[in-house]
Amino acid sequence: MAVFPRRRLAAVALAATTALLVTAGCGGGDEQGDGPITLTVDVFGQFGYEQLYQEYMAANPNVKIVERGTGTNLDEYSPKLTQWLAAGRGAGDVVAIEEGLLVEYKANPGNFVNLLDHGAADLKGNFLEWKWNAGLTADGKQLIGLGTDVGGIAMCYRKDLFSKAGLPTERDAVSKLWPTWPDYIATGEKFVAAKTGASFLDAATNTFNTILLQTAGNTTGYSYYDTSDKLVVDSNPSVRQAWDTTMDIIDSGLSGKYGSWSEEWVSAFKQSKFATIACPAWMTGVIEANAGTGAQGKWDIAQVPGNGGNWGGSHLAVPKQSKHQAEAIELAKFLTSAKGQIGAFKAKGPLPSSPQALDDPAITGAKNAYFSDAPVGTIFGSGAKSLKPVYMGPKNQAVRTEVENAVRTVELGQRSPAQGWTDAVTNAKKAAAK
């Protein structure tokens, strides 16, 4: 998930966030005397593990699993995890690490159990090669995390709003509307002209990130940092291309300006305030959670403009501060197994990083009833094995936040595109230097 990963993966859920903060001080895995041990799992967004926990506890009655952070966005989750790791207490027994932050956490591998010391090397074939390698330290001697999902990208849309605007509603016909991003913009202009009372898309930042990761994956293989960890925000053509295309989207008046992951964003889902949203596989769970049961069958999934892309994904790690490392390692192995990844996909939509899971009929034949029985196994899974990873540098999250903040200021009319670009570059350099 992720994510989103996002990667800022899901709107803030107040109850979940409160629970995360209240329990932060005590950490996970406290001793339970003669009773079952408690394993705390820290996640963000929607990982889809609830049923898997029940299955695991039924098979392991000595274990009780408590999850923290479901629904919490990455901007809240990551600083807490960083604080807990630095303090040596407070983190869960199993913690999710989003792909954009993995390099940063791998810089301090001593915070985590080396999974290679606990039989994880035998599991290498259970993951796409690049996903496995992403969890390794640079010298290949430590594995800090096992992969969860990858983020194949599509475009989710509201059929009812498309119908109201006089546009096609069937997914193949919708996909043909926008083979390129300029075509997507042209479709959006037709939608806006129809005056449906809704915007064409939710927010420019989500679309910007989609275009960036898509373009980078098909060209350089990196975004804000190159593979030598040099900041290239102002010299990587992928970043500038994504910026310019997003500025065209903003200039065309297509965005609803609903700040991603905010309360107004969640309300916009519920009130049918926008018609399309860039949709990595994990986003389907977010949409369903935010839009609610009343919108079932009103959503569908089409191809994304451009040529695919990969947005999101995480790893599960076991902090050394866990009091139950052996049990936590076994749980992490279970959740990231082919069975675990299939279960998570069925529950919330994150696309497996396991080749065995991707080949399973449960994935290849999967349909999502909420999204008008869209063949999600085909839409997201058919090209999953050929997804190209995008390298994320040591301060990726901080840099990304500054660039997307600059996109947001243009979207809100506070800066011109030229001023916004200057801010993006200047503030990204400051963030990278901290």
What does this entry look like structurally?
The chain is α/β, with parallel strands linked by helices. The protein has helices at 14-24, 50-59, 74-87, 102-106, 129-134, 159-164, 171-177, 181-193, 204-218, 237-251, 263-270, 283-291, 325-335, 338-348, 355-359, 361-364, 376-381, 396-411, 417-433, and strands at residues 37-42, 63-68, 94-98, 146-147, 149-150, 153-158, 199-201, 274-280, 299-302, 314-317, 351-352. Helix 9 packs across helix 18 (396-411). The radius of gyration is 21 Å and the shape is globular. Mean pLDDT is 92; it is low at 2-26.
Principal-axes shape call: globular
Low-pLDDT stretches = 2-26
Helix content bin: 40-55%
Rg over CA atoms, rounded to whole Å, is: 21 Å
Structural class of the helix and strand makeup? alpha/beta
Please indicate the percent range of residues in DSSP E strands (runs of 2 or more).
5-15%
Number of helices, counting only DSSP H or I runs of 4 residues or more? 19
Give the strand tally. Answer: 11
Largest sheet: 5 strands, mixed
N/C terminus separation: 28 Å
What value does the average pLDDT take?
92
Across the major sheet, the strand order is: 2-1-3-10-4
Order of helices and strands: HEHEHEHHEEEHHHEHHHEHEEHHEHHHHH
How is this structure best summarized?
The chain contains 19 helices and eleven strands.
Task: Summarize this structure as a short list of keywords or feature phrases.
single chain; 434 residues; five-stranded mixed β-sheet; 19 helices
